[in-house]
Every structure is written in C-alpha cells, then in structure tokens.
Amino acid sequence: MSKYLLNKFLYTVDRDPDLVERYRATPAELVTWWEDSRANMVLNCLTGEASTWLRFTDEERTALIAHDHVKLFELGAHPFLTLTLFIAMFERDNTEPLEYQKAYGARMAHFNLPYPDIAT
Amino acid sequence: MASIVAVIASTHHPFYYRASTSTGEDRPPFADEWTRKILAFRETLTRANPDVLVMVGSDHFHQLWLDNMPQFLVGKAPFYDANWYNEEREFGLPRMLLKGQEDLSAHILRAGLDDGFDLAFSNELRIDHSITCPIITLRPEADLPIVPIYTNIFAPPLPQPSRFVKLGESIRRIVESWPSHLRVAVIGTGHLSLELGGPRQFGPHGPDPEFDRRAVEWIATGDLDNCLREVTLDSLHSPGNATHGFMDFMLMMGVAGAGAKADYVDTLDLFHTMEAYFTWYPSSSSGGSL
Question: Would you say which domain of life the source belongs to (chain A) (predicted)?
C-alpha cells in the first residue's frame, strides 16, 4: 500500500503535458516506464541521489493502467490529484459542459462516509 | 505602526475568470450576476485604499509537495510569479507577476516565530489560484505588493481548526505592530462545503447547503464560539471531502476578531459550491462601515 507513490505518479504526470498525453493514449506503457524510471526520483535531485524502495503494488499498478479512478479513490489516492489529471485527459471528449465531471461522480455513488483515508 | 484597513474573506472559485471574460454562446447564464456581485465586493477593498495585501491561501499541490510539506508558510521574495500549467489548462487562468513586500514578510516571520508559530518560509514561491483568484476579483490591476501566507488544508495530517484561528489572531497583532505607515489589507480565501473527486462533486449546489448556511452565519457574526464547538478535523469530512478549506475562513475570523460582525456579506449559490464574500473594517481604521 503506497498512497504516497500513487500520489507522486498523479502529481508528476499531471504537471507535464507530454506525460498527460502519453498516459491517455498508452497507459500501460506510460505506467511501466514511470515506475521504472521516475518512481524513485527525489524531485529536486538531478544527479543520482534517488530513493531505492518505492514501487507499486499489483493492485495499484493495475488501477493506474486501467484509468480506474474509482479504484484509486478506494485505495486512498488524493482525490484532487486524481480528478485534476483525469479531467485533463478526458474532459476534451465532453459533448456538453461538465459531462465528464458528473459521470466521474456518478461512478462513485456507492461510496458512503467515511471515505477511504487519504493520509499518507 | 501599520494599520489594517480591511479584512476580507472569500471563496476562490477558479472558474470566475473564464466565466466573467467569456462572451456570446460561451458565456454561462450565471456570469452576469456573478460579475455584478464581484464588482460590488471589489469596491469594499478599493474604498479602504490599501498599500499592501497580506494574502492567505493554500497551495494545491503545485510547489508544495508531500516530500517536504509545511503546515504554515510565509513567502519572502521580491516577486511572485503566479499560476500554473494545469490551472491554465483547466481554468484558463493567465500567468501573472506580483510584487512582494519583503519587509512585512520578514516582520511576520520573526514575530510569528516569537509568537509560537514555527513558520516555514520560501524565497522563491510561485503562487496559485488560491491567491490569484482574489487578486483577479478584488484587485485585477495586480499592482500592490503582497505577502503570501500558505496553509495546509490539503494534505493530512492537518493543524487543528483552533490553530488556524490562533494564527489569524496572531497575524492581526503582528501586522498592527509592523513599524510602518502603510495601510494593509488582509485577504484570505477558502471554501464552504466542497467535494472534489468524490461522489458528491459538481452537483446543482454545494454538497451541503445546510453547512453553508451555518458557516455564513458564523463568519458574518464572528461567532467563533459556535464555529469552534462544531467544527473539527473529523466533522469537516461530512459536508464534502474538500471542506477542510473552510479552516482558512476560520483563520480570517481570527484576523477579524471574535465577535466582529462583518461589514459586508454576500453569497452566490452556484453549481458545485456556494460563493461567499465578507469584508470587515477594523474600528481603528478609516474604512468605516457600509
């Protein structure tokens, strides 16, 4: 269980326009590449002072590859990060205003309070 | 000493900029009323004639991240670039550049540390829509120097609500002890009930209109007793999963002072969340009441 790493994925992909497009188009390739080459980067270190211990669980990796935002919520990923990135990827397909945002909420209608804990 | 000429608390709705500048078919039906309310709200700052703005907001995982997360942070820089790629992408917000007021930043940091708040600081801070939204609504010229103060309402563990109130009370004392002749407005933004990324998001109103009604009453009347009695870190999950941003309103109630009735109160019921606007003129200032 690595809520921090899920959040790190969402955060670092969301802020890079090229990664947003790669995650939309080829999620399996992007998630695999990210876990291999980016998961252990300390964000302000450029010369090899990386971490050595961060990796996804199978459940987390599967959820990311499937663009399964409902599962990410269940796993405790930060809802703001997930929503922001998924809007970036899929709002463009709307046929009316807020269509994606409303459907995103509707897919989560089975969640009751308390929601999954997002503390990292 | 410096004087606090206005205390302002507001929601920070990132859609306002696009709604208010859109035309023709792109202009949403609520844009005209929203713009009217914002122009009236803006006048409450303009008439106070401030020289400096202390801006309280919360970084939305832009510069501040989980590998190094401060609870309360004060910017101390000569300039602040503003707004981020994902805010341009989702909200159409413009890039901005604001001047800093480093003397007041240094004073707040020194006095805040001495008053029991172990404030973090930043000498290079790119600010986000929690601070630029009120610049756009209240001072679109973006011509006054600022001191940004960021709070963590986003990444648990969070400080307790009472801590936000105490920080607001401390900011009030600290600004009023700043050896300067300048006129300071303290502006902070937060949320009423709000859900982001959960099942209650983007409804026809905010997720909890009853919470919003009570919250507006607490703020408008300065009712910190009831607010602190009812609001806890746990209770804030119930009105909506992003409602911890209400603690920035509580901070501003601390700046205004317990029992201080707001001189200006307005709200706008929008889809997704309720907008709320409050202005206080501290009695020692020349702003007067409306």
Answer: Bacteria
